[in-house]
Specification:
By secondary structure, the protein is mainly alpha-helical. It contains three helices and two strands. A two-stranded antiparallel sheet has the order 1-2.
Length: about 120
């Protein structure tokens, strides 16, 4: 017997797929909660978190991501599709991230908020 999420081969039906996905979401939340300090300023409505544990956090999330990737490949197999579609999706998301990261900012107020100097800062 092997743990299904440790290899990309095989098939997974809908119910076990969703059970795995929900498990990964819960584990991701737990990992984030363990490695993050939540900072909330209620008066200004600002909320953000800082991740501690750097390398350990990265390893935990990488393992969860890889296992989740394999489960998605198995679900594609069960639906009669190639697992290579996951690579296409991953590359599309990377390209989308680069494109929106390179879009120029609007240098005026818009309906999402004012143009402020704070928009250029990484934290706070």
């Amino acid at each position: 017997m092997s743990i299904r999420c440790l290899h990309p081969s095989g098939r997974v039906r809908r119910k076990p797929f969703w059970l795995w996905v929900i498990t990964f979401w819960v584990l991701g939340g737990i990992v984030t909660a363990v490695f993050s300090d939540t900072i909330t300023e209620i008066s200004s409505g600002l909320a953000y978190y800082q991740v501690d544990g750097g390398f350990s956090f990265l390893i935990c999330y990488a393992l969860l991501y890889i296992a989740n990737f394999f489960i998605h490949i198995q679900r594609l197999h069960d639906a009669g599709h190639s697992g290579w579609w996951m690579l296409f999706f991953f590359l599309f998301m990377m390209l989308f991230t680069v494109i929106i990261g390179l879009l120029p900012s609007e240098h005026q107020d818009n309906h999402y908020g004012p143009d402020t100097d704070a928009n250029g800062r990484y934290l706070g």
